[in-house]
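Appendix B. Raw example, untouched.
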Amino acid sequence: MTVALMWEARAVAGRGEDLLAWARTQELTPPPLRRETFRAPQDRVLVITWWDADLGAGLPELPEPDEGLVTRAVHRWRFESVDGG
């Protein structure tokens, strides 16, 4: 089964590039099958990782950034693939 973990955070105004750089340096052990990082307006950063695992498996996730870098707690979601690919 393929599981996608989504991690989304909103940086303090004007610190979007700092949050993006921070997210890109966070290593996950073991590494995911695939990892993509996105940015959006309002200094938001989204990281999606794909894993060959069950939905409830214990998987490494990106941590919470320092409080001075984000405006709120990180949002996290888990999804399982339904298309088999």
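End of appendix B.
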